[in-house]
Target: Putative CD11-like protein
Amino acid sequence: MWVSLTSPASLSEAFNIDTEHPLRFNGTAEDFFGYSVYQSEFENRKQIIVGAPLKRNSTGEIYSCTVDLLSCRPLHWPGSESVRFFGMSTAVSSAAVGRLTSCSPYLPHDCDGNSYLNGICYQFNSSLQAVSNFTSAYQECTKREVNLVFLFDGSSSMKAHEFEMNKHFIKDVMKKLSNSSIKFAAVQFSKEIRTVFDFNDYQNGSAEEKLMKEKHMKFLTNTHKAIDYVLTNLLNDASSGADLNAQKALVIITDGEPSDNDDKNVLSRCDEQNILRYIIGVGHVSLHTLTQLASEPKKNNTFYIENYSGLEGLLDNLQKKIYNIEGSKDTHSKDRPKELSQSGFSVLYHKDSVIVGSVGSNDWSGSLYEVTGSGSGFKETEIKDPSVSKDSYMGYSAVLGMRGGVSLLFSGAPRAEHMGLVTLFTKSESTWKVMWNITGEQIGSYFGASLSVLDLDSDGESDFLLVGAPLFYQSQPRAEGRLYVYAVSEENFQKTLNVSESNTGRFAASLASLKDLNGDGLSDVAVGAPLENEGEGVVYIYLGDRTHGINPDHAQRIPARSVLPGLQQFGVSLSGQMDMSDDNLTDVVIGAQGRIVLLKARPVMSVSVQLSFSPNEISLIDFECPGDKVFNAFNLTSCLTVNERTRSSGSLKKNLNVSLNLNVDVMRGINRGFFVQSDSSSRTLQKFILLDSGISCFSFPIFMKHCTADTVSPLKIQINFSQTKMFSESSMAILDIHSRTEEYVEVPFQRNCNSNNSCVADLKMNFSFTNDTLLVMNLAPLTVLVSLANPGDDSFNTSIVLHYPEGLSLSKFDTVKPSRTRSSCGDRDSGATNRTTCSINLPVYRSGTTTQFLATFHVKQDYDWADRMEMMITANSDNNGNISDTVVRRSIPVQFAVDLAISLVAEDSVKNLNFSLEDRGPKPLNITYKVENLSFKGLPVSLKLILPCETTYGILTPQTFSMQENSSVPCKFTKPQDGHCGKFECGQFDLQKSSEVHFTLTAHAALQNVKQYESKHSFHEFREDFVFDISAELHFNRSRYNQTSTGLKDDPHKSQTTVRAEFVVPPSKMLIVGTGAGGGFILLIIILILLVKCGFFKRKRPEDFPSEDENVTAVEDSPLMNTNAKENGGVSENDSTEKENKVTKTNPSSESPNTEE
Model:
């Protein structure tokens, strides 16, 4: 049936242990009802045996609880208040006739003032009636012989009546202990030492008479000498009646400090022989000195009285100490094998015998005892590991197994060497022998406090050993308690797993092997953490695993509060080997403080799912672009098969409430198929169903759009399911956690191929660069022409992958021809920066198609480019059969775009020079050049300066040529052999990006070859120009760097500089003056001759002329009388003619004066 819900609830950490319907059996927390629990069957009635060790003022009691009556009845209590903690351990026999043994590890009894602590176990028949008891490892009261010597002071410091009091004190002690096994002797010491009576005298009855007749010696106090005397002549001398194997004791009574030294080390000898020494100091005596004479504990064995009358009050105290010597075996330092055995701390059955743990045996080393028989006729055999140290608590836990027909006895000693220990005993004939030991990993972890064996496949062979270390501490991640799993074999143990769960909770304080819970045929395990959740407790369920024993992850976590609020120490005890409710499913009994809980198992159902579709492929006939119409592409069918893994019986409902989830195109970002015809985004579908046993099938139509780009890749459909908590009242079944809850199916598209329905494409790919070089400048273009041909069958999911350096970025990938071929780039590269995948004509690149593409790249100038750039382009498809023509590699030279220029710095340079005969030089010449790098990249450059040869009138002598910013750049001057011209060559230097440097030429220019002008006189000025052509050239690696236009000049790498020189010879002053003077004199003579011929000198005088008249114009002075000429010392011919012409023009009509003819 179908059921739709809006907000389903999911199962939390539950598996098949039902925590919703527990059966509770109540006791009281004060009695600790539930401290131990055991499932059993007696007289065909299934029962739970429960221990309450604190019942009846900690005497203890055990109970029998029945599931059918939901009640508990008390079975037995010891009936003696001296017995404590009965029910702390219990064992149930697995024999056909049920037997039960329950123990108390606390049975105290006194022996002549000594307190012993043993244990007692009670045995019950199949009717659960107590029939007998036994006390294994029980220490009987025994007496052992003691040889005691009284060494009393007879020095002169003692008065006569005090000496008598001394003797009466000794007599009273002997009288009170006359019925003991103690033999006495007495020695008086002073300066000398004398035996008063020996052990023979005491035994024949003459000791008292000799004592009372003893005379007072009255000398010094030689105590050490006296002790040596006692050792030699009494305690270690059999002739004195001493028993050399008896416990030795010495009572020293003195009122003074020793007057001698311990030269013979008598005190050390006493310690070596374990001689107990009691010191009684009387009067004014140094207790510190006397205390050194006593045995350990020295203060407890030293007594002080003010005078000898105090001996009477000391009698009882000393008597008790002496008496205790008799009742203890090597009390001072020997082991106590059974005195504090506390047998019954653990108990188990082995065939017809009972094995009990005795943690206190052998000074708490611990051991086990195997008990056979019953009542007063029982026999016991100690089982111990001699290598276990004291205070180990062997027997704290014990468990039995079987391997290859050999019985295996495992016993835990959680305090062994502070690390913990587990010992394996095997029984050969009638003797248990130590086979192997396992040591814990951490101090104080209590490794071995809990044990369990796991018969994984229930074949009677023990496969794994489980060891709990409830105090193990782990800091990261924080955890308290650890479970260790060991594989058991005939040869050794092999650790397979360790598990920690609880933060603080004593995880693994209790362990129990469980009968198969989930129907996989393997035994499972319950682990208790009784203090987790602030003392409430948690139980963990682990399923069996053939390799590791158990699965490392728990299948179910059961906190106390999920079962019953208010529980404390839930999980302190566990049992789970029986079906208590007659449904053929294992039930688990869990103990808590004051209650026990029975949790039933649920049926476990296995579910498998199968997906199918119809038709068996998606037809291509319905796909056509463009268009948005939708059609039913195929129908999907899911069939779920439900089977029970467990073998439950009865009327349990086994329906499963399942949430079913379907997803179309599960691996794609954009789905092609969908469930709802009107909603193309409906790629998922969720349904809630109630499954019955058997097969249930459901169908779903799948829709697609007519215009779907990818009609090659199959549609991948996923189905997964999980159990929900719906209908919990009607269904008890649980989904098997091992069920495969997820399945996939791929629905293919129809394919049309030429041969045998097997499409094989034949892709052929090639490419070429349209550029000769790769020019590195920001966003510079690089174009690649790519050709792809497919002469074979249709190619599916075709792609071209361009592999290139990260210094390139693909900006366009255009189809050149034919234009109908589609491409899509960059959506399949996951952010890669050195490749681009271009899908070609998805989904099918048709047979016989040839396409050219133009790929345009942008060049990144900040990339670290090599000398050549290599590019690889590959062609791929799902069905390409040609792999030889689909990978092409090509390379292209790399050039960097640079912007270099060299130019003259005019303001810092001399370009014009003037020379004359008087100033022939040499004159300084400075030329400065600027070298600029306007590009983004620095590069190495060099500079050459070519100087001119000598000119006709000038010579250039170079001095230096150097860089202003870095004088270390070498510039070398070389001359040709003729010596007329030369050049500077500056070595290579690094010209950084966006920088400029300056080079300066210093030289001298001088005038030459002008001797012909030194004696030459001329009326005119002589000028002669000549030039020095200087060429500066910038050089760099033109195969690696490419000059870009600067806009400065045609050739930015060359600067041609012309220095103009002018030679000037002025006109000769002497020539001009001489010629002027001579010419003027000749002209004067000519003028005079002319004047004479003209009768100038015959003219009238002024007074002979008439008076002034307005019509008569006076004739000016003759311009021939040129005062300037006189001043200049003469005029040139040209000048005279010029002035005559001026005169003529001034007076064109004037008449010459009258003259004689």
